[in-house]
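For concreteness, we quote verbatim a single protein encoded this way:
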Amino acid sequence: MLLEIYNRTERFKNKPLKGFVQIIQVIVFFVGFIIIISILIGKSPATLFAGLGASAAILMLVFKDTILGFVAGIQLSANDMLRPGDWITMSKYGADGTVIEVTLNAIKVRNFDNTITTIPPYALVSDSFQNWRGMKESGGRRIKRSINIDMNSVHFCTPEMLDKFRKIALLTDYIDTEEQELEKYNKEHHIDASIRVNGRRQTNIGVFRAYLVRYLKSHPNVNPNQTCMVRQLQPTEKGISLELYFFASTTEWIPYEDIQSDVFDHIMAVVPEFGLQVFQGVAGSDLRHIKIEESRG
């Protein structure tokens, strides 16, 4: 009854108090049991407690899990490491879901597939686990995903390409500002502009990266108060990897996945507009197409 009252109180409803209530119950039952025995045998309870002190090692062995759970509960509560309702991940125990109950001997986690994982409290103190509470409280959930660009499709921008890019609303100011800066630099350093490799010039992948940054910052479902960037990772045999790092404006799972999918749907569709190609492995249909072309030739 007392636990229910505390759970309804705003200050205590997210605190793992059930473990403390259980340890108090154990102590009360233990003391009551000793008093009853002392009455039955006609001896003072103090005498029985003194005798139990000699067998403390045996008692500690019997109540080892209870003692460890009690100590772990104090640490978890004092350091605010865990609350009922927190989403935690602990791969060692197969836990990935919401904490539904914190007791003296077990912490119950409801996983996303609705299975229940039970973890001993002291495992959360002795081992590492991930608590997603900070993400929920921040109001944004991170999206970190990359797209691979075929290196053979990367090249300098021609005047015709720049004219085309100027018509893209998000790039109009960027193209003009960047061209002015590059022309000024090349002029000050007496660059021979007849050869493209000389001086500084815009590339289609550079313009595409600038577009992605502006697209994300203008997206209504991207959190404007958290990190938002597009960076180029180490090129590999799978092409140049452009990584998008930003935060969705929601922490809920389904809307988060919808936002992530919508963003990359748009990116996949817009890549060819910049003269770029997405890199992907050769499929069986590609080999059949090549074979058909060779047979026709």
